[in-house]
Amino acid sequence: MFFYVRDLKAHAVWSATPRPVRTAPRRFQAYFSEGCAEFIRTDRDLTTRSRWIVSPTDDVEIRSISLANGGKTARELDVTSYMEVVMAPADADLSHPAFSNLFVQTEFVQSLNAILCSRRPRTSSEPTLWMFHALAGGGEGKPGK
Questions:
Q1: Among 49, 115, 58, which Cα is nearest to 82's?
Q2: Alpha carbon distance 74, 53 (integer Å)
Q3: Which of 15, 54, 74, 91 is the Cys-Cys partner for 21 at CB 3.0 to 4.6 Å?
Q4: Which phi and psi angles does 59 have, rounded to 5°?
Q5: What distance in Å separates the CA atoms of residue 111 and residue 101, rounded to the nearest whole number?
Q6: What are the percentages of helix, strand and coil residues in the chain, rounded to 5?
Q7: Is the per-residue pLDDT at 143 higher than 60?
Q8: Entry pTM
Q9: pLDDT tens digits, one per residue of 28-70
């Protein structure tokens, strides 16, 4: 999963982490602790903070991004998230990625502002797997434009 940031007026694009876009930031820091990774980068006067949190007790991962404009002028930004939903063991996906993707279904649930994903079981004994991807905004920005 990746977050991309695009400054519409400056015509600049970067990712919240060093990859996939390899744009060199003015400043970059990474912090790692048990169950959490945090990446902070500054591009021009904009600081992007990404946090990845993994629960030690539940099968859940939360990724968040926050942006802080340290400049004196307003910024117009697009923030895009991208992920490839697999929901299968890594070795199964690596050996047959196209086949593995045949079992993933997605739907947009407007009332939750979320994409709901499920993996259809291949056998009657296999459980149905679920995940969701949601946008939640806060602060002074206008998310979800």
A1: 115
A2: 30
A3: 15
A4: -85, 75
A5: 26
A6: 10, 45, 45
A7: no
A8: 0.79
A9: 999 999 999 999 999 989 999 999 999 989 888 899 999 999 9
